Amino acid sequence: MRIAYLILVHNQPAHVARLVRALASAEAWCFIHVEQRSDITPFRALLGDLPQVTLLPDGERVTARRYGYGLTQAALNLLAAARRTGARHQRYCLLSGADYPIKPAATIAHQLAADVEYVRVDRRLASGQCGEHLDTVRRLHFFDWPLLHRLGLSNRMPRPLYRGFPLYHGSQWWALTDACVDELLAEIQRRPGYTWFHRFSRTPDEIYFQSLVKHSSRARFITHDFERAPDQAAFQALHEHGAHYVDWSLKPSSHPRVLTMADLPAMLASNALFARKFDVQASAELLDCIDRHRLGAG
């Protein structure tokens, strides 16, 4: 099964190179977006000669400010690059440069061949619900306009909710089938106002694709959907986010925990295929242990 890995990176070139090598197989292609403000030189030096690896050219690299639209545009640019190859991929997996596979390659390929959409949806963004999460779309945000943001205009001006279809919020990371991506790209083409709306949302990377999948015919195949969870408390505490293992237990939870050896048992016991987030130094022992496990060395 042909897999397109869409990887968003901004630092840790050595870890990104390790990630790409861990993903490598005859059926895996890696498309990498290096954030526009980052020096691409070390990434080219480590990745430029690897087979089946594409670094997006400078004209397709965007600035990805925290909470802004840039990460969403970068993911769209990666999808476009994968589609331009002319070969159809059966699965498109969005990863970050701080991720790593935690299961053997054969297990990953087998699970990604299933007829499901690996994405996590946590809540519907509707009036009277979701508390502060609703403000991500109910008010205007200017994270991509630094001057307006510094003037304190973000989150101060209300606006109507998007009227095209209900919006949902969930995990940024997903692994979608080719059929699902077909539907999403067609819907984006039909609704240019949808993208424009999210240029003024907060963390649209956690809303844009998730809402489109929920609006699609593939919604019933979502792996982690709060609307189908029998126990909401258990669902919200789950560290599985689509195909990812991510621990958001830090308070306040503005960043996921950096994983260490203490996380290994829970990580391997999960159904996740990938995990984040890894630091090249703090997670070094854990990464070596994961490699031994993935390669069947215990």
Which structural class should the secondary elements be placed in? alpha/beta
- The total of beta strands comes to 12
Low-confidence parts lasting 5 or more residues at pLDDT below 50? none
The count of helical stretches stands at: 12
Protein architecture, described:
This protein has helices at residues 13-23, 41-47, 70-84, 105-112, 135-138, 146-150, 178-190, 192-198, 208-215, 232-237, 264-269, 284-294; strands at residues 3-9, 28-34, 53-55, 91-96, 100-101, 117-125, 167-170, 175-177, 222-225, 240-241, 244-246, 274-276. By secondary structure, it is α/β, with parallel strands linked by helices.
Write a compact overview of the structure shown:
The protein is α/β, with parallel strands linked by helices.
Task: Note the main attributes of this structure.
single chain; globular; 298 residues; alpha/beta; five-stranded mixed β-sheet; four-stranded mixed β-sheet; Spore Coat Polysaccharide Biosynthesis Protein SpsA, Chain A
Topology at a glance:
Blueprint: E1 3-9, H1 13-23, E2 28-34, H2 41-47, E3 53-55, H3 70-84, E4 91-96, E5 100-101, H4 105-112, E6 117-125, H5 135-138, H6 146-150, E7 167-170, E8 175-177, H7 178-190, H8 192-198, H9 208-215, E9 222-225, H10 232-237, E10 240-241, E11 244-246, H11 264-269, E12 274-276, H12 284-294
Parallel strand pairs: 1-2, 1-4, 2-3, 6-9, 11-12
Antiparallel strand pairs: 4-8, 5-12, 6-7, 10-11
Helix pairs in contact: 1-2
